[in-house]
Design a protein that fits this description.
The protein has 176 residues and is of the alpha+beta class. Helices cover 48% and strands 10% of the residues. Strand 3 and strand 4 form a beta hairpin. The protein folds into 2 domains: 67 residues; 86 residues, Glutaredoxin, CATH 3.40.30.10. The chain is elongated, with a radius of gyration of 19 Å. Bound molecules: FE2/S2 (inorganic) cluster. The site of FE2/S2 (inorganic) cluster has 12 residues, from helix 5. FE2/S2 (inorganic) cluster binds next to helix 5.
Length: 176
């Protein structure tokens, strides 16, 4: 079955280059002076370099800043702008707010899972699509709503999901 519970891993060379860049960044000493601020700053850098917070990067940060890995892990999971998994190129957010739920949000979620053959929180094996839920997006009058990256699709019905996914697949082909 074409499913994946883990996102595509970085290639070893990319990872090593990224870790070197991270060490150089920490060594420049340009981070904030207090430890918590420095950690936050460095984690943002990790996210910028890798697109997520890989375990190896946490180990480097722990060693360089003398902060326990468990503390870094806690911070990386507390703030939702950090991610412990590589993000997909097109992240799909299904609104799970009340209005969208009542208007059929759950059926949209099911259809997307069926089409992509992944579950909530996963990324497709090619790294193209990720699936997550979000709280109210602020357009309840147009529910149910799904957001893909910055684009919002309103008054959506499950039948329209394949066409939307194809649109992003075609965009991807054009960029190659
Ligand atoms: S509940 Fe979905 S946009 Fe408000």
């Amino acid at each position: 079955m074409n499913t994946c519970t883990c996102a595509p891993e970085l290639k070893e060379k990319e990872k090593q280059d990224g870790l070197k860049e991270l060490k150089d960044f920490i060594k420049t000493g340009k981070q904030l002076h207090d430890k918590q601020g420095a950690l936050m700053n460095v984690l943002h850098k990790v996210q910028e370099i890798f697109g997520y917070i890989p375990r190896e990067a946490m180990d480097v940060v722990s060693e360089e800043l003398c902060v326990p890995t468990a503390h870094i892990y806690g911070m990386a999971t507390f703030y939702n702008f950090f991610s412990l998994k590589p993000k997909a190129k097109y992240q799909i957010y299904v609104c799970k707010g009340t209005a969208c739920y009542v208007a059929g949000g759950a059926r949209l979620l099911e259809r997307i899972e069926d089409e992509l053959k992944i579950k909530l929180g996963d990324v497709t094996p090619d790294g193209l699509f990720g699936l997550a839920i979000t709280r109210c997006l602020g357009c309840c009058g147009l529910s149910p709503v799904v957001q893909v990256n910055d684009e919002v699709f309103v008054r959506l019905v499950p039948e329209k999901i394949p066409g939307i996914l194809d649109k992003f697949r075609k965009m991807e082909k054009k960029t190659k």
